[in-house]
């Protein structure tokens, strides 16, 4: 009888420790940043964007793999040398076997699948303005990977929507260069007048939704639909929830596309929504809510 009781106690102790270990591992997993493989198509990206690419990737996780693909025997890629050395990016040589065929794409895709099955990453960043990577992005997402796409504004829509998030390289470059000049005071000014120095530069393109960006009219309509579906009885909806749903509907949605650093000044600049700030028990935290203005 004593042996049975001792065995039961031992099993209980084992289960408690096992459960505790599982909880700790789960919590550690929640805090762990994504490991991201950055794969760059040198034939469709300029070296001037590299710093902006790596800075943006660091906002989403840790760039563990850094590879760039191209035929480095071609003269037009010679300017990449110093950029690759200064940013610890590994060049992958891929000869063009046949005229008119891009073998670089195949090399990138094969490496991506090898990395996927290695289990060493939780996400991929595919940098290209080429629609040939659309199926790759789709396949990686089917495998549960986070897929961040980057490319110029000429990037075809199928590749953009295949990614979980997509960033325009021109927007990253403009927002980054202006971000260095803007101080905290200028950010405060933006919240009041809804405009930054690079807001003016982006205006011509974003109003009509040129170059693949979501047009402002379409954006306003989407925000109104989200508010109607998520608001309380008084018509107020959480601005954070609105932002999350916008990101799901439009993979290329980024407030910087419209010249704003944050969502609040962007929504304010649209002139069709009321914004309300509500205090919480923590004096340093406020929740923002949005409502359609009464006409």
Structure overview:
With 295 residues, the chain is α/β, with parallel strands linked by helices. It has 2 domains: 33-172, Rossmann fold, CATH 3.40.50; 207-292, 2-Layer Sandwich (Nucleotidyltransferase, domain 5), CATH 3.30.420.610. Helices cover 47% and strands 17% of the residues. It is built from 12 helices and 9 strands. Strands 3-2-1-4-5-6 form a 6-stranded parallel β-sheet, sandwiched between helices. Strands 7-9-8 form a 3-stranded antiparallel β-sheet. Helix 8 packs parallel to helix 12 (263-269) and helix 10 packs across helix 11. The chain is elongated and about 65 Å long. The protein starts with a helix and ends with a strand. The relative contact order is 0.09.
User: What is the CATH fold-level name of the largest domain?
Assistant: Rossmann fold
CATH superfamily descriptor of the largest domain = 5'-nuclease
As for the number of domains, it is 2
Biggest β-sheet, characterized? Answer: 6 strands, parallel
Question: In terms of topology, how is this protein built?
Answer:
Layout: H1 2-31, E1 35-41, H2 50-58, E2 62-70, H3 81-86, E3 90-93, H4 103-118, E4 123-127, H5 134-142, E5 146-151, H6 157-162, E6 165-168, H7 169-181, H8 184-193, H9 199-206, H10 216-230, E7 237-238, H11 239-249, H12 263-269, E8 273-279, E9 286-292
Parallel strand pairs: 1-2, 1-4, 2-3, 4-5, 5-6
Antiparallel strand pairs: 7-9, 8-9
Helix pairs in contact: 8-12, 10-11
